[in-house]
Write the structure tokens for this entry.
Amino acid sequence: MDCEQKQIVDELLKSYQEAGGINNIDGANYPSKRAVPGICEELLRILFPGFFEEHALCSNETEMVIAERMCGMLERLRVEVNRSLRSRADESVSKGETSDLAHKIVCDFLHELPEVRSILSTDVQAAYDGDPAAKSIEEIILSYPCIEAIAIQRLAHVLYNAKVPLLPRMMTEWAHEKTGIDIHPGAQIGSHFFIDHGTGVVIGETCVIGSRVKLYHGVTLGARSFPKDGEGHIVKGIKRHPDVEDDVTIYPNATVLGGDTVIGEGSTIGGNVFLMKSVPPHSLVALEDQEHRVLDKRAVRPGSPIVAVPATGS
């Protein structure tokens, strides 16, 4: 082999053994990263027929098309759920047991699709009602990234609650990569949820969000700190992220942290606010006015001192 390729291969094989990171566990391969985008896209087609494909759906073909998609989804999702379960199963669990459990989980998941679709309709309506630039419901579904991100999160949340490892997070990370909106599948979100613009929004695993909540771009609902055990390892499985009650609006680039932080119902959190404590219902949280300088650009020359020009009310 040229370029001492045999040595490179040997070193890579040694690295696989020492550091892991290889998806080649006999009988327990991890879910396919290539399969997940296709599954997410097909689920969006089932939830919003005709909106996520090139051709419109004829009414007399709807039953046949949806039946075919459901059949295909059952098998595709069963394979990935089974892989997810096998990746965490110990040797005492047979392949048949995980296969049967995967089939049941996927069947239960598919039965939830009408309910997911129902709550998504409230999210679409919230986007239409909450954005004066929106001209139609169809525009919301076709062009608003928050709808894709929220739809995938609500689907992934069903699998998360069914204790499926890996796959729910892979689904929401696909949506994150596609939309810039990062919502953990564990987050609990009520109806009529709207994320305006959306880029840079982060919602943590243990967040509980009420109904009729509106977030703007750059909002973070995150963890304040990570407690560690006696051996210095981060303690997992505890409440780390804030609760946001009904009818709350959080403006751009606000950061709300902490598992014991609660934003009371009807509150408004202003832009760029940094919060690590609870606020009571119907609060308005805003930064104090900051002084601005208004300059006459014509008077500013290279090397000359900058002189502020008083602002005039016009």
Notes: The chain has two domains: 1-180, 187-314. The domain at 1-180 is CATH 1.10.3130.10 (serine acetyltransferase, domain 1).
